[in-house]
Design brief:
The complex is a heterodimer. By secondary structure, chain A is mainly alpha-helical. Helices cover 79% and strands 0% of the residues of chain A. Chain A has one domain. Chain A is globular. By secondary structure, chain B is an alpha/beta fold. Chain B has 9 helices and 12 strands. Chain B is 32% helix and 28% strand. Chain B has a 6-stranded mixed β-sheet, sandwiched between helices. Chain B has a 3-stranded antiparallel β-sheet with strand order 2-1-4, covered by helices on one side. In chain B, strands 11-10-12 form a 3-stranded antiparallel β-sheet, with helices on one face. The longest helix of chain B is centred in the middle third of the chain and has 16 residues. In chain B, strand 10 and strand 11 form a beta hairpin. Chain B starts with a strand and ends with a helix. The chains are: A mainly alpha, B alpha/beta. At the A-B interface, helix 1 and helix 4 of A face helix 2 and helix 3 of B.
Chain lengths: 242, 281
């Protein structure tokens, strides 16, 4: 089988595995949606709040399905010795990783579509003003947070600490990046941190694509792209089979 | 061309030299055993041959190729059973074997491979439901599904109950009958004795003895002659039992004594092994 065909086989296999793992399916798909409903019900009374919340949760979905899921899964696969086993077969490394990462990428796109649909159908937020921009930012976000997730797996020493490590990054990042509320009121120092990190810019890009509002999308795209390049570099440099 | 050629292989991890100049050759169709205590350098050696590690010095050829290059062509011709290795937890035995078969150009039939290792009854069980011995059999199935010419077995029966060991030994014999070459590491002497055509005893990164398990000797005192005299067992060690026996029996006849319980034995592999691996400790 060609490398491409093997990547496709691995992708299909990963899809099968994903749906057999209820906790992964929960954390990847249900948790962002539950947060969406809870935050919308508790805090977001008016349309203005929802215009912030929908792009925010969509961006959170991208991070959960790529960064968190890949860092977590790769740590498991590495520590269980599954990666080492695969390394001993003729399966090309590129085909294996393409299948694995491809599955996470599909989850990210599904998540964004799901959040935007619920926002529109349930909460009356407009359908995206600029679907092409939404697609572009989803692709950039996936590249950025996917590669950072692969790179971050390197820093996680073992399976037991994987949830702690990923959440230590994920949760603070959510709160400073304007996922649940507008980040305009953050203290200057925190805002500077958020500006330097990619999630706030992904939220801005989604916000512009979904509700519009003349944000600086080029600048936002540039920051996410720079992080994506850094992530790719580190992912390749740090990847470990065992 | 031999299946494996290793010439003065060395591997250092920082200041620690795990392998210190190993040389051996494994012929096609041979079952070769690397025997030695934990930490002797067996696994490091095998992982260099499998393409997992880069050597520090020396020459290595596996099926005529340098395993460090990790060509897909070579990986298709070898099968690897690692010491401890996980599975995808939420797939069945059949799904795992079928999935791994896809990476090979000419795989063995997955169903037949599962039968070969004796897992037919567990074919539809999820991998996490398997017992330790059954997991090891699945390891074997995944290594064999590519129909490799050369199979690496790194401590294949560690943690097995006696029945599972017998099954695994049966599989290794089957591999030999199929004409496969097998490189086996083990610290079980009976396993090496039972399965290997030749063994090399490794200690501190060096080979201290090599040969067929029945003939391997520490170099001196290869025979032991013993008998019972005046209620006590008397034992002599010699390289020349003919001469010794002649002398002993001549003296006994001259005294008019019978040498009761006279035995000429070779030291067992276990005795040789213990003697060789205990030196310097």
């Amino acid at each position: 089988m060609s490398t491409l065909a093997l990547a496709w086989e691995q992708f299909r296999f990963e899809r099968k595995l994903f749906w057999r793992n209820p906790s992964a399916a929960f954390f990847n798909f249900l948790l962002p949606l539950i947060l969406l409903v809870l935050v919308a019900t508790a805090f977001a009374g008016d349309a203005e709040d929802l215009d912030v919340l929908i792009p925010g949760i969509a961006a959170m979905g991208v991070v959960a399905t790529t960064f968190t899921a890949l860092a977590f899964n790769l740590t498991m696969l590495r520590e269980d010795g599954v990666l080492k086993r695969i390394r001993g077969t003729p399966m090309p490394a590129g085909a294996y990783l393409a299948g694995l990462v491809g599955s996470a990428v599909l989850n990210a796109f599904l998540q964004v579509a799901l959040v935007v649909s619920i926002g529109s159908l349930v909460y009356g937020v407009d359908w995206p003003h600029d679907p092409a921009l939404l697609l572009l930012f989803t692709a950039l976000g996936v590249l950025c947070f996917g590669s950072l997730g692969v790179a971050f797996a390197h820093a996680i020493p073992n399976q037991e600490s994987a949830p702690a490590y990923t959440n230590a990054v994920f949760l603070p990042l959510l709160f400073i990046s304007g996922v649940f509320y507008s980040s305009d009121n953050l203290p200057t120092a925190l805002e500077a941190v958020a500006e330097a990190l990619p999630l706030k810019h992904l939220v801005d890009g989604f916000s512009e694509a979904i509700v519009g509002g003349s944000l600086d999308v080029a600048g936002a795209a540039a920051v996410v792209a720079v992080w994506a390049l850094a992530g790719l570099f580190l992912a390749v440099r740090w990847f470990r089979w065992e | 061309m031999p299946a494996i050629e290793v010439e003065d292989l060395r591997k250092s991890y920082g200041p620690v030299e795990a392998v210190r100049g190993l040389s051996f050759t494994v012929s096609r169709g041979e079952v070769f055993g690397l025997l030695g205590p934990n930490g002797a350098g067996k696994t490091t050696t095998v992982e260099i041959l499998e393409g997992y590690r880069e050597r520090s010095a020396g020459e290595v050829r596996v099926l005529g190729r340098d395993p460090e290059e990790r060509t897909r062509e070579l990986q298709e011709r070898i099968g690897i059973v690692l010491q401890s290795c996980g599975f995808y937890p939420r797939v069945t035995v059949r799904e795992a074997v079928e999935h791994f078969a896809k990476a090979y150009a000419k795989p063995r039939d997955p169903r037949e491979t599962i039968a070969l290792v004796g897992l037919d009854e567990k074919a539809d069980a999820r991998t996490k439901e398997l017992s330790g011995g059954q997991r090891r059999r699945l390891d074997l199935a995944l290594a064999l599904v590519g129909d490799p010419e050369l199979v690496f077995l790194d401590e294949p029966t560690t943690g097995f109950d006696p029945a599972a060991r017998r099954t695994a030994w049966g599989v290794v014999r089957t591999l030999k009958e199929l004409g496969k070459t097998v490189l086996l590491t083990t610290h079980y002497l009976d396993e090496a004795q039972e399965l290997a055509d030749r063994v090399a005893i490794v200690k501190d990164g060096r080979i201290v003895a090599e040969g067929p398990p029945g003939q391997i000797g520490p170099g001196s005192a290869a025979y032991r002659v013993s008998y019972v005299s005046e209620g006590r067992r008397v034992e002599h060690q010699t390289d020349d039992p003919t001469e010794l026996l002649h002398r002993l029996t001549r003296d006994a006849l001259a005294r008019g004594e019978r040498l009761h319980g006279l035995e000429v034995t070779r030291p067992t592999l276990e005795e040789v092994y213990l003697q060789l691996t205990a030196e310097g400790e």
